[in-house]
Structures are given as C-alpha cells and as structure tokens.
Amino acid sequence: METMKILGVTRRNDITFHRSGRIDLTAHVSKVLHLHAGDVINIAATGGPIVEHYLYVARRGSETTGRHCGVCRPAKRRGNYLRVFCKRLTDYALSTRSGASSVALRVGQAEEVSGLGTALPIIGLF
Predict the structure, then answer these.
(1) Backbone torsions φ then ψ of 35, nearest 5 degrees
(2) Rounded CA gap, 5 and 27, in Å?
(3) Which of 4, 43, 56, 102 lies 20 to 30 Å from 34, alpha-carbon distance?
(4) How confident is the model at residue 10 (pLDDT cuts 50, 70, 90)?
(5) Is residue 11 predicted with pLDDT exceeding 90?
(6) What's the distance, Cα to Cα, between the start and end of the chain in Å?
C-alpha cells in the first residue's frame, strides 16, 4: 500500500512580496527583529560566490524623521502582523521570477551581522 501525505510542507511562509509593492511580514518576523510601527526595514546582500540576503531593521521608528521607503505599518488592529509598501524591494525580490505576481519566502534563524545588527537570512530569494 502506498501512503500519501496530505500536507507536503507544513512550514508557513514568513515574508510575502507582491508586485504592487506590498510586503507582508508575519508576527514571527516582527517578534524576532523587534519590529514596531514606524520602523524601516531593508534587504542586504552579501558579496562572494554564494550570495546571501538578509532582512534587517534599517532605522527604528524613534529615530526616523521624514519620508522613508520600507516603513512598517500594522496590517491589523491587533496582532504583530506588519505591512510595508516599497516598490524597489518588491521589484528586487521578484526580479528573477518573471511573470509572478507575488513570492512567499521563509526566513532562517536570526544572526548578528556586522554593520546590520540582528538580521534574518531570507531563504530562496535567488
């Protein structure tokens, strides 16, 4: 008798990039990076033969003045789900997926990266 798995992969995605510029962050990402409304996120790429991408906090809301791309806003009244609008970040994330309207990705364990502080490696960005 052959067995069949109902759920192939049970791990949920942590970040979703939409072609419109919308980025959805789960509560897990918010908690690990200590994100709050008004914080600014960014993506950093390492050089070398194997490129790694990291999601990190570029600026905290308390030190942010003026207009910035990548500002976190609450997606719901309650909960830690955050939403970001930044067309440049979504275009970068979707640049290798021609025709895709969105891409959902996972993050790894938090790491301390020099120059960035606490960052989350993005799995499967490129």
Answers:
(1) -85, 145
(2) 28
(3) 102
(4) confident
(5) no
(6) 39
101: burial class by Cβ within 10 Å (0-12, 13-18, 19+)? Answer: exposed
Number of C-beta neighbours around residue 65 at 10 A? 7
pLDDT in tens, 47-101: 878 889 999 999 987 776 778 888 999 988 888 899 999 999 999 999 888 888 9
For 88, the 3-state DSSP assignment is helix
Please list, residue by residue across 41-61, b when 16 or more beta carbons sit within 10 angstroms of its beta carbon and e when fewer do: bbbeeeeeeeebbbbbbbbee
What's at 116, amino acid-wise? L
pLDDT band of residue 120 (cuts 50, 70, 90) is very high
Whole-angstrom CA distances from 13 to 23, 43, 88, 124 are 12, 17, 21, 11
CB 26 within 8 A of CB 14: yes
98's tokens: 């021609």
- Positions of E strands within 1-126: 15-18, 22-25, 40-45, 53-59, 72-74, 82-85, 102-107, 111-113, 117-123
Q: Which residues pair with 120 in a beta bridge?
A: 55
